[in-house]
Amino acid sequence: MEEHVSWGIPVALVLFLAGVGAGAFMLAVMAQLAGDRRYRAVSITGALIAPWPAILGIILLVADLGKPLRFWELLLRKGEGALMFNLGSTMSIGTWLMTIFILCSLAYLAVSLLTIPFRWGATARKVVGIAGLPFALLVTVYTGVLLAASPKVPWNTPVLPLLFAVSAIATGIACVVLVLAAFLIIRGRAKEDSPIPKLERLYSGVIACQILVIVVFVLSQIGFAQMRSMLGSGYGLLWWIGVIGLGLLLPLVVGFWGGKKKPMIASVAMAASVLLGGFLLRYVILMAGQAVV
Do 166 and 209 form a contact (C-beta atoms < 8 A)? Predict the structure, then answer.
C-alpha cells in the first residue's frame, strides 16, 4: 500500500477540534435549556470549552496552508474587480462556518459569564445559545462533508458526515466530562454529587448510535480495497484498538455500568479515551482515503 499524503495530522486535528468545540457548545446550550440551575456547571463548562478547540483548529488550518497571509483566500475569491464569496469551494464554506461558529461561541461564553447575577440572564443565554446552535450543528456535519465531497474511497459516502457529526457530539460531551472531573479532583471534591454520571450515560448513548453508524459506513464501502485495507493490514491496529476498543467499547461499557461508585479519575480516563478515539477515527479515515492500494 502506497500513500500520497497531502492531508496529514494537522488536517485530522482540524476536523477533530472543530467537532469537539461544536459538540461542547451544543451540550452547553442543551443544558441551559434543560434547566439553568440544575445543569449550570455543565452549561458554563461547555461554554468555557467551546470556542478554543475551534480557534486552535483555524490556527492549524492557517499554518497548514504554508502561506498564512493568504488565509483570506479561504473566505473570498477575486472576481471581476471585486472580492466575492467562494460558494463553489467546500473548504471556503467550511471556513466561513467555523468562523461564524467561533464568533457565536465567544458571544455565548461572554453572555454566560456576564449575565449570571441578573434575572434576565437565563433568557439572554438561551437566546444567544439557540442562535448559535445551527452553526454548531453545521460545523459537526461539515467536517464529514469536506471529505465526502471527494471521489476517494472511503470518503465518498453520505454516511461520513453523519458519522463525524455523531462523533463530534460524543467527543464534545467527553471533553466537558474531562474538565468537570479534573476540576473536582483538583478541588478535592471528587466524592460530591455531580452531573458526571449522567453525562457519561449520555455520551454512552451517543456512542451506541455511533457504533451503528460505523457499521453502516463500513458495510457501504466494504467492497473497496481501501476499506479492507483500513480494517486490516493498513490501519487495522489503530482502527480496532484505538477507534473501536479504546474510543467506543470501553467508554460505552464503563459509562453505562460504572455509575457513581467508580473513582473520579476513572471518569477522566474514560473521557480521554473517547477523545483519543474521536481523533483516531478521523485520522485513520483521512489517511485511508489517500492510500493507493
Answer: yes
Domains of the chain by start residue, with CATH: 2-292 (1.20.1630.10)
Classify residue 38 by its DSSP letter.
T
**Residues near 123 by beta carbon (within 8 Å), at least 6 away in sequence:** none
DSSP secondary structure letter of residue 239: I
For 2, the enclosing helix (H) or strand (E) is strand 2-3
Whether the ω angle into residue 154 lies within 30 degrees of 0, i.e. cis, is yes
| CA angle centred on 43, ends 42 and 47, rounded to 5° | 115
Helix 250-257, helix 264-288: angle, nearest 10: 150
pLDDT in tens, 213-240: 999 999 988 888 888 888 887 788 999 9
Residue 17: C-alpha distances to residues 52, 137, 266 (Å): 9, 14, 23
Does residue 1 surpass a pLDDT of 60? Answer: no
pTM of the entire structure?
0.89
pLDDT digits (tens, 9 = 90+) for 175-190: 999 999 998 888 876 5
> Which grid cell is 214?
460505523
